Amino acid sequence: MEKTIEITKLLEKYKLQKTPCRKSILNLFLNTAHALSHQDIVNGLKTEFDRVTIYRTFNSFEGKGMIHKVIDSEGTAKYALCAHDCTSEIHNDSHLHFSCSKCQKTICIENCKIPEIKIPEGFQLQKLSLLAEGICKSCKK
User: Fold this and answer.
1) How far is CA 122 from each of CA 45, 118, 129, rounded to the nearest angstrom?
2) How far apart are CA 104 and CA 126, in angstroms?
3) What integer best gives the mean pLDDT of the chain?
4) pLDDT surpasses 90 at 105
5) Threshold 0.85, pTM exceeds
6) In the chain, which ranges are E strands?
7) For residues 99 and 78, what is the distance between their CA atoms, to the nearest angstrom?
8) Nearest to residue 41, comparing CAs of 7, 8, 77?
């Protein structure tokens, strides 16, 4: 499927307006195999958008279930596309995130789900993440 059509369909699916900023950022996510920081997005955009517009775009994407936030080993917030079955109510992003110590990329390892964690009575789990650190296969070559 052509990327422009895919971008339009994704924005329609999540009931988001097709603004130039949203299209540009979504295009970056669709063409990148790792999580992106705010700075990665700014550096990758061909058109300049103000910082507030980019943050609002992140918030709308995350709120709708299009992307999820990952905190890497350096404490930097990065964002990755969610599986297509995520919604604003249910995020299906409980998988391993791998942070490469050489290239600093954070990669979603979708086929490595986080096992169910039994939380003590009285606690309510809202988000669970698992970050592994090491050297990715590209850097290992």
Assistant:
1) 45, 12, 20
2) 27
3) 86
4) yes
5) no
6) 36-37, 67-71, 77-81, 95-100, 106-113, 130-134
7) 11
8) 77
Residue 42: CB atoms within 10 Å: 13
Number of residues that make up the chain:
141
Contacts of 40 (CB under 8 A, 6+ apart): 28, 32, 78
Q: In Å, how far are 11, 86, 118, 128 from 32, measured between CA atoms?
A: 18, 19, 34, 24
Q: For the residues 45-66, what does the mean pLDDT come to?
A: 89
In one-letter notation, the amino acid at residue 120 is P
Residue 99, token pair as written in the block? 């942070």
110: its two tokens: 């979708």
Q: How far is it, in rounded angstroms, from Cα 59 to Cα 3?
A: 22
Q: What are phi and psi of 118, to 5 degrees?
A: -90, 115
d(CA 109, CA 125): 22
Rounded percentage of the chain residues whose pLDDT exceeds 90: 41
Question: Using CA atoms, how far apart are residues 32 and 24, in angstroms rounded to an integer?
Answer: 13
The H or E element containing residue 8 is helix 3-13
Q: Taking the C-alpha atoms of 64, 66, 68 and 74 in order, what is their torsion angle to the nearest 10 degrees?
A: -120
